[in-house]
Amino acid sequence: MSLAVPAGCAGTENSRRALSVDDLLVGWNGVDDLWVFAYGSLIWHPGFAWRERRLATVRGYHRSLCLWSHDHRGSPDNPGLVFGLDRGGCCRGVAFQIAADDVPAVFNALWRREMVTGAYTPRWLTCHTEAAPVRGLVFLLNRACQEYAAGITDDRLLASVRNAVGHSGPCLDYVMETERALRAHGIDDWRLGDLVRRLGQAF
């Protein structure tokens, strides 16, 4: 199911967002709790109430520092990088269970946070947990977006993470906080661990 707002949709930003969330929730009975998969800053700063938290794996996608940030973790002149879920491999993260009563408010807040630039495409995917698989909302990388950092060199990646600062703080803090949150949950992301070592940061 495509969850993007159709091109040419009229109305204010709020009305477009509402239509997008409504599209996402088509078929939801309003009674069942829903799940959201976190792989980056949502792990350590979800910004919403949750009922249960489980370690989960999404297959077919991997965590990648592959999106330019010109505001939150960088600037137009000195963009930083943030995580997306790119095609291939698998990703270990955290699934949050959202109580049914909280779903409309939480999902609208997620849209305001994640769907501003079109860098992400939301999908319902299977999140594999030790207890049982759950169907969760996952924000996937939109490779067609302007923010996609395709073919970035290692040197530029390292320089951007070290030096970029946005209105949410330094890019380096964002990367380090995500790596710490993963380790705190017992998640070993060797790519991110290698990046942290190359950045010269002590664990």
Automatic annotation (TrEMBL):
<dbReference type="GO" id="GO:0006751">
    <property type="term" value="P:glutathione catabolic process"/>
</dbReference>
<keyword id="KW-0808">Transferase</keyword>
<dbReference type="GO" id="GO:0016740">
    <property type="term" value="F:transferase activity"/>
</dbReference>
<keyword id="KW-0456">Lyase</keyword>
<dbReference type="InterPro" id="IPR006840">
    <property type="entry name" value="ChaC"/>
</dbReference>
<dbReference type="GO" id="GO:0061928">
    <property type="term" value="F:glutathione specific gamma-glutamylcyclotransferase activity"/>
</dbReference>
<dbReference type="Pfam" id="PF04752">
    <property type="entry name" value="ChaC"/>
</dbReference>
<dbReference type="GO" id="GO:0005737">
    <property type="term" value="C:cytoplasm"/>
</dbReference>
<dbReference type="InterPro" id="IPR013024">
    <property type="entry name" value="GGCT-like"/>
</dbReference>
<protein>
    <recommendedName>
        <fullName>glutathione-specific gamma-glutamylcyclotransferase</fullName>
        <ecNumber>4.3.2.7</ecNumber>
    </recommendedName>
</protein>
<dbReference type="InterPro" id="IPR036568">
    <property type="entry name" value="GGCT-like_sf"/>
</dbReference>
